[in-house]
Write a structure and sequence with these properties.
By secondary structure, the protein is α+β, with helices and mostly antiparallel strands. It is 35% helix and 15% strand. Helix 1 (3-17) crosses helix 4 (103-117). The radius of gyration is 14 Å and the shape is globular. It comes from Candidatus Giovannonibacteria bacterium RIFCSPHIGHO2_12_FULL_43_15.
């Protein structure tokens, strides 16, 4: 088996086993305890279905910044799936995350997770237009 494929299977297994976090209630940002490091994350809807798989690419504040972007409608996921209302995530949706330092490993894990988990929303990298 391809070494990278085996590694992605293990990383996805680890990600799925992580503890879920709730998006914060109105008026709050993602907890300061959520890492500023780069990684991959899953977003679950209130019925615990995976609706989005994402990764950080270059944000200075990593996973915390990217998840807060979703809360404030600064993502194609929120624009297309939640009609631009990131507030719908608050206190109802959950997320899981895993820290991945290496850029290639993050990209591969995101792609692998999308293929295996078939999330409802699939970002196409076309920016934030509809």
């Amino acid at each position: 088996m391809n070494k990278e494929l085996h590694e992605n299977e293990k990383l996805l297994e680890d990600l799925l086993k992580t503890e879920p976090h709730k998006f914060p209630v109105k008026g709050s940002l993602i907890k300061l305890g959520i890492t500023k490091k780069q990684g991959v994350y899953l977003i679950y809807n209130p019925k615990d279905k995976i609706v989005h798989v994402g990764r950080t690419q270059r944000g200075k504040f990593g996973l915390r910044q990217r998840l807060n972007n979703h809360l404030y409608g600064q993502s194609s996921f929120v624009i297309n799936y939640l009609n631009g209302d990131g507030g719908k995530l608050r206190a109802r949706y959950k997320f899981k995350l895993i820290i991945i330092k290496d850029e290639r490993k993050r990209a591969l894990l995101e792609a692998f997770a999308i293929g295996k988990l078939c999330p409802i929303h699939l970002g196409l990298g076309l920016g934030m237009e509809r």
